[in-house]
Amino acid sequence: MSKKFRYECRGEWYKGNTHIHTTASDGGKTASELAQMYAGAGYDFLFRTDHHVASDVVSEAGDFPLLWLDGVELGGTDGGGSIYHIVCLGSFEGVSSDKSLEENLEIARSQGGIVILAHPHWTGNSFEDGLRHKFHGVEIYNHVCRWLNGKGSGLFIWDSFLKQHDILGFAVDDAHVKPEHPGWDGGWIMVNAPDLSRKAILNAIKAGNFYSTCGPEFHSITLQDGAVTVCTSPVKFARMAGPNSKGARTGSFDGELLTEAEFELPSDWSYARLEIEDAQGRRAWTNTLF
Ligand SMILES: [Zn+2]
Ligand SMILES: [Zn+2]
């Protein structure tokens, strides 16, 4: 692996969520209520991703205790007959529910959006569906889908993509916060950025300088002399995952908790990513390291 190391952890870590619904679509809380709740849970930023309603947070009145960023969730059937939900991060003009999925996707891409395949397991997307529209990212954990029918994981399709090309992995809430979709603060990302501005957060996400988590934390991810070292919150296991059955691991079922792990980088894997798992079985995942 002679490619460039992805992680640069000299900035601050900022906690955020890239998939949130408000009362502008089918969410149960206003942007103001959500900002209060999430700021209270330690969040620094949220992307507003209402169904077919592209947000415009800059021109909106309101003083929020965290940073809102623009986004939208597209849904529909493509020309191949497959259903998709697609989260697009960025500010968009022209998205609407009477346009086709492809037309809306083209708007999002041409206006610089980060395009993410949402909850593929829950929607029922095949890997071929995933390849048809070049996504920048895929949701690897969706908290509401886990609650709805247990189909919150996107890890399998993520690794299928990674064998072919790099793609970012996102843990998200998809919060609606109403009785039929109650969960929130179950999956989020930690972005390492020089400051908490929209530009810095978007740039760091585009570069993949973040990790996804349902609880445990990476405090640092560094490369030295062909080995990657991580400092973490107390965890039971740390693993490095590569294509198919490739893997390395440390930790034990009955041992003490770890807060540091080191892995030699294998030269013959096409990609490598790290994950950690805490005593409650909650996991966190880096993007691919290179
Ligand atoms: Zn959705
Ligand atoms: Zn959603």
Briefly, what is this?
This protein has seven helices and 16 strands.
Description:
With 290 residues, the protein is of the alpha+beta class. It folds into two domains: 12-214, TIM Barrel (Alpha-Beta Barrel); 215-290, Immunoglobulin-like (Sandwich), CATH 2.60.40. 19% of the residues lie in helices and 34% in strands. It contains seven helices and 16 strands. The strands form two sheets. Strands 7-6-5-4-3-2-1-8-9-16-15-12-13 form a 13-stranded mixed β-sheet, with helices on both faces. A three-stranded antiparallel β-sheet has the order 10-11-14, with no helix packed on it. The protein is globular. The model has no long low-confidence stretch (mean pLDDT 96). Bound molecules: zinc ion (ZN) (2 copies).
Which helices and strands appear, and what pairs or packs with what?
Elements lengths: L11 E9 L10 H10 L4 E4 L18 E11 L5 E7 L11 H10 L3 E4 L2 H4 L3 H6 L4 E6 H7 L5 H8 L5 E5 L15 E6 L4 H10 L2 E4 L4 E7 L2 E9 L1 E5 L5 E5 L6 E7 L8 E5 L5 E6 L2
Parallel strand pairs: 1-2, 2-3, 5-6, 6-7
Antiparallel strand pairs: 1-8, 3-4, 4-5, 8-9, 9-16, 10-11, 11-14, 12-13, 12-15, 15-16
This protein binds zinc ion (2 copies).
One zinc ion binds next to loops.
Measured between the Cα atoms of the first and last residue, the distance is: 8 Å
Helical stretch count? 7
The percentage of residues in β strands lies in 25-35%
CATH topology of the largest domain: TIM Barrel
- Overall tally of domains: 2
Number of strands: 16
| Largest beta sheet: strand ordering | 7-6-5-4-3-2-1-8-9-16-15-12-13
CATH homologous superfamily descriptor of the largest domain: Metal-dependent hydrolases
Instruction: Give the mean pLDDT.
Output: 96
Written as H for each helix and E for each strand, in order along the chain, the element string is EHEEEHEHHEHHEEHEEEEEEEE
Classification by helices and strands: alpha+beta
Helical content class = 10-25%
Under the CATH scheme, the architecture of the largest domain is: Alpha-Beta Barrel
- Low-confidence residue ranges: none
The whole-angstrom Rg is 18 Å
Shape: globular
Reported for the largest beta sheet, the result is: 13 strands, mixed
Small ligands present: zinc ion
